[in-house]
Design a protein that fits this description.
By secondary structure, the protein is mainly beta. It has one domain: Rubrerythrin, domain 2 (Single Sheet). The chain is 0% helix and 48% strand. Strands 3-4-5 form a 3-stranded antiparallel beta sheet, with no helix packed on it. The protein is globular. The structure holds zinc ion. Zinc ion (ZN) binds next to loops.
Length: 60
């Protein structure tokens, strides 16, 4: 497996809010360790690794 993926700065451009299930496009992109804020309920979430390619959101 190549390690190149890890150099990519922003890995995802959208997320689903764990609190209110709203779909949030995030045009600036986000990656592990970033904090994203749901545009609907205003809850901030920390981006954590979940598996090799996925992320999960933990209430910040
Ligand atoms: Zn929400």
């Amino acid at each position: 497996m190549t390690q190149d993926r890890k150099k990519k700065e922003k890995e995802w451009v959208e997320f689903e809010c764990p609190d209110c299930d709203a779909h949030n496009p995030w045009s600036d992109g986000f990656t592990l360790g970033d904090v994203v804020v749901c545009m609907f309920c205003g809850t901030p979430f920390l981006v954590k690794r979940d598996g090799e390619e996925n992320f999960r959101l933990v209430r910040d």
